[in-house]
UniProtKB/TrEMBL annotation, chain A:
It comes from Frateuria terrea. Residues 67-219 form the MacB-like periplasmic core domain. This is Putative ABC transport system permease protein. It is found in: Cell membrane. Keywords: Cell membrane, Membrane, Transmembrane, Transmembrane helix. Its main location: membrane.
From TrEMBL, chain B:
This is Putative ABC transport system permease protein. The chain crosses the membrane at residues 21-44, 309-332, 352-379, 399-419. One of its GO terms (molecular function) is transmembrane transporter activity. Residues 312-425 form the ABC3 transporter permease C-terminal domain. Residues 20-262 form the MacB-like periplasmic core domain.
């Protein structure tokens, strides 16, 4: 198939050609960026919390006086331990995807004015570390002797474990074990590093801070009470949580069960990411609608061209062109137009991406999206041109001899 | 002539139903997507307190120590008890209110209702006149109640309906946190969106059910909801009045620009004075935003919503380019017919008008379709889990905007094809047949 005559014909329809090229370019730009945004969102929802989510549930109680906290802890721990199927129950201040509780700024020495970042402290009573199922990569897990009473929201001093991501941020080139982090005037010595541990709510300061968490072993008491971590086999978890809520009504009738904070971790996770999933769904809807409109536009315009050129097509057929030649002509024409559009669209896609990067926490558009976007649009163009092109190929040669 | 053009347009559109449907569909999809997202954006970025928003200001000071000091940083988003009380008692503004959020356990006298928690606002008396809060029964408390830590409460209409079946409950006693409060007022329905005066518990959260004097809440150590930012020695839950923490919101009403300027100067002077006294360490760093400025500063409108609006605009653009192409095809196909009209004496202008009427009809039809799609879209948005979802409703101004946008955009899209179709030489068209 020769390209020269196709280009020559297009030059006679500059305006219409330009319009399709523009439409394809816009579609290409929006398509690449929307796909990238979807991928970005879905990647966020795959966040590894580092804990055994499917076996864990959170139970939050409010409305009790701090003076009764110790008594409440004892009643809840004793009362829930006997629920059939429960593996463990322990006191904790927060869980991943739940309400954040211990968010605070830290420093690397007592007197430096420089903040080392804002992290989340998980403060957990006996058994909570094991229940979470955190994976220790270096150092040791907390022991009973590490635990002391909580002053306001942290013990006065304690050996702590940090996530690998936080260790890499604080001490990029050094062994974190034995190092000290300071919160207010209190030192916390790092005795272990866990593989992953996501902070409860979103990372203040972007995705890279998502795992800036510290686990602090502590003794339950006046300042550590009301939030309980239940562990059970995944298939029993929902029932165990239901039983636990029912039992609370008996053993502590004076407290209020906070429904939002009393869910299984899979439920909390689901709730946490639903905005992201909704956004991804909406983007997908836009992409589908966009492709549909573009395809319909190509069908409409090509149909018009075919109708306009009926006579020329008849002449070509009369002069010996086969049906395949006519089909190929329209396909080549579409391929060329779409290619121009893609070329322009890629520049536009990068422009939009640069704009989005300044407004949102988005990385640069990976180059891989461009060939994929191009393939999709080429395919779409060829598919939508097929019906009008087949109609063109069906024009009989005898048309050439008619005067109208 | 308009009626004739309209008739011609309808005939022409009927002649090629598939193409017409295609154009209307493209416009409707674009307009529908655009209006859905723009309505959400409009609702979320709207003025929460029209008429008052330019007179209400949010003063910010920087009482922190020198740790982590950077000259370009903004002052903290809230004020300390000491500064809040100082500024409140200085009475330099037309009105001023110091407040924080909280939650109180309510113990109804009727045994039929179980005790429950209700969101509360602990504030000083000016809150009600300053924010123009409508009262159904009774009245708000006054300054003397603030100073005397009176056990008085104002409750919302919703809570009044729940506890007193909507009857005038002023003068009744309500047991909260084991303390008896006297109800002095009941609010009429009132909801500000965004929840501008305290953004700590969700920008689009509902208004509180119980309003109590701030001093009373502090005396009784009622539970607070909100954010506390501390430095130095850190927080001390028992002595929040002296702790180096910001945890209160201060709003002031300043009726004239001169007063705004004067108040800002006052804030700077106050900061300098506190620095001389040794309480403040940083150089004076103050902000005084009005309501809309404060909402902007806090980036209240979710980024996702803006992104969706831009995306929908991009989509509308694609739909319009598509319509331009299709209209061009349609108009050029009728070159012969237009040639005849031109040859019979119609001027270019008249042919142009005729074609514009046709694109206007498409725009109007597309607008109706877009409206239906937007209603569907908003219904889908309301099904979403976000806390602002329930607010997504089309109002009259957005309804009008839908049609303006649809017709305007389609007319704009019709300009180029119509102009191009007017360029055909009548003689050439007549000859070729």
């Amino acid at each position: 198939m020769q390209i020269q005559p196709v280009l020559a014909a297009l030059r006679r329809h500059r305006l219409a050609t330009l319009l399709i090229v523009m439409e394809i370019a816009l579609a290409c730009a929006v398509l690449c960026n929307a796909c990238f945004l979807i991928a970005n969102r879905l990647q966020q929802t795959r966040l590894q919390s580092g804990v055994d989510e499917t076996s864990l549930a959170e139970l939050t109680l409010t409305g009790f006086d701090p003076s009764q906290a110790t008594d409440l802890n004892a009643r809840v721990l004793d009362g829930l331990r006997t629920i059939p199927g429960i593996q463990s129950v322990s006191v904790i201040n927060a869980v991943p995807f739940g309400q954040h509780a211990g968010t605070a700024g830290i420093k690397l020495s007592r007197d430096t004015p420089d903040s080392a970042g804002v992290v989340d402290f998980y403060v957990g009573g006996p058994g909570s570390f094991e229940a979470l199922g955190l994976h220790v990569v270096s150092g040791r897990a907390p022991q009973a002797t590490d635990m002391s009473a909580v002053a306001d929201f942290l013990p006065k001093s304690a050996p702590v474990l940090v996530s690998r991501a936080l260790a890499a941020h604080l001490w990029p080139d050094a062994d974190p074990l034995g190092k000290v982090i300071w919160c207010a005037d209190r030192p916390y010595r790092v005795t272990g590093v866990v593989d992953h541990l996501a902070r409860p709510a979103g990372g203040q300061g972007g995705p890279e801070t998502r795992e800036w968490s510290v686990f602090v072993p502590a003794l339950p008491g006046e300042n550590l009470a009301g939030v309980y971590l239940l562990r059970a086999a995944p298939d029993q978890l929902n029932r165990v949580l239901r039983d636990a809520r029912a039992r609370i009504a008996k053993i502590a009738p004076e407290v209020v069960v906070d429904s939002l904070g009393s869910q299984t971790l899979p439920q909390l996770r689901d709730r946490y990411f639903r905005d992201d999933r909704a956004m991804a769904g909406m983007l997908l809807g836009v992409i589908v609608a966009l492709l549909l409109v573009t395809a319909l536009g190509i069908v409409g315009l090509t149909s018009f061209w075919v109708a306009q050129r009926r006579k020329q097509i008849g002449v070509r057929r009369a002069l010996g062109a086969t049906r395949g030649d006519i089909l190929g002509y329209f396909q080549t024409e579409n391929f060329l137009i779409v290619s121009f559009g893609i070329g322009l669209g890629m520049l536009l896609a990068f422009g939009i991406n640069l704009l989005l990067m300044t407004q949102y926490e988005l990385p640069r558009l990976p180059l891989l999206y461009l060939p994929i976007g191009a393939l999709v649009l080429w395919g779409l163009g060829q598919l939508s041109v097929l019906a009008p092109a087949l109609r063109a190929a069906a024009v009989p040669p005898v048309v050439a001899t008619r005067s109208v | 002539m308009f009626g004739y053009y309209l008739d011609l347009a309808l005939r022409s559109l009927r002649r090629n139903k598939a193409l017409t449907a295609l154009m209307v569909l493209a416009i409707a999809l674009g307009i529908g997507a655009c209006m859905t997202t723009l309505t959400v954006l409009h609702v979320l970025s709207g003025d929460p307190i029209p008429g008052r928003s330019t007179q209400l200001y949010y003063p910010q000071l920087d009482p922190r120590d020198m740790d982590g000091y950077r000259p370009e940083d903004d002052p903290p988003a809230q004020v300390t008890w000491i500064d809040g009380m100082n500024l409140l008692h200085a009475r330099r503004a037309d009105r001023q209110a110091l407040m924080t959020g909280g939650a109180v356990p309510i113990q109804p006298a009727q045994s039929a209702i179980e005790p429950f928690f209700e969101d509360a606002r602990y504030t000083t008396a000016d809150f009600f006149p300053m924010f123009d809060v409508p009262m159904l029964y009774g009245h708000a408390w006054n300054q003397a109640d603030d100073e005397g830590s009176a056990r008085v409460a104002v409750i919302s209409r919703k809570l009044n309906d729940k506890l007193f079946q909507g009857k005038d409950s002023t003068g009744q006693t309500l047991l909260m946190n084991d303390v008896a409060f006297r109800i002095v007022g009941v609010l009429d329905s009132w909801r500000v969106t965004p929840h501008f005066y305290d953004l700590n518990n969700g920008s689009y959260s509902e208004d509180e059910g119980v309003y109590l004097p701030l001093t009373t809440a502090k005396d009784l150590k009622l539970a607070r909801n909100g954010s506390t930012d501390c430095w130095g020695k850190g927080s001390d839950p028992d002595h929040m009045d002296t702790a180096p923490c910001v945890w209160l919101q201060l709003w002031v009403q300043l009726d004239t620009p001169a007063k705004v300027a004067a108040y800002k100067t006052f804030l700077v002077h106050y900061s300098q004075e506190q620095k001389t006294l040794g309480r403040f360490q940083r150089p004076p760093n103050v902000r005084l935003d009005d309501v809309m400025g404060w909402l902007d500063f806090n980036k209240v409108v979710p980024g996702d919503v803006r992104l969706q609006a831009w995306l929908a605009l991009g989509f509308l653009l694609v739909c319009l380019v598509n319509t331009v192409g299709l209209m061009l095809a349609k108009f050029l196909r009728r070159s012969a017919e237009l040639g005849v009209r031109r040859a019979l004496g119609a001027s270019r202008r008249e042919v142009f008008m005729q074609l514009l009427v046709e694109s206007g009809v498409i725009g109007l039809t597309g607008g109706v379709g877009g409206l239906l799609l937007a209603l569907l879209g908003l219904w889908l948005v309301r099904k979403q889990p976000s806390d602002y979802a329930a607010l997504a409703h089309l109002d009259l101004s957005m309804l009008a905007a839908t049609f303006l946008l649809a017709v305007g955009a389609t007319l704009l899209a019709g300009l180029l094809p119509a102009w191009r179709a007017c360029q055909v030489t009548p003689a050439l068209q007549l000859k070729s047949n």
